[in-house]
Amino acid sequence: MPGITLLGLGPGDPAQLTRQAWEVLASIDEIWLRTAQHPSVKGFPAALKVHSFDQLYEEGQSFEAVYAAIVEKVIALGQRPGGVVYAVPGDPFVAEATGPEIARRCRATGLPLTIVSGLSFLEPAFAALGLDPYPRLTLVDGLELSQAHVPAFPPDMGALVAQIYSPLVAAEVKLTLGAVYADEHPVRLVHAAGTPQEVVEDLPLHAVDRSPHIGLLTALYVPPLGAGTSFEAFQDVIAALRAPDGCPWDREQTHLSLRPHLLEEAYETLAALDGKDPAKMAEEFGDLLLQIVLHAQIASEEGEFGMAEVLKGIHDKIIRRHPHVFGDIELDGVGGVLQNWEKIKADERSSHGEGARSLLEGVPLALPALIQAQQIQERAARVGFDWPEVEGVLDKIAEEIGEVQAAADEQELAAELGDLFFALVNLARWKKIDAESALRAASQRFRQRFAHVEAGARAQNRQLSEMTIDELEALWQAAKSK
Question: Is residue 274 part of a domain?
Answer without folding.
Answer: yes
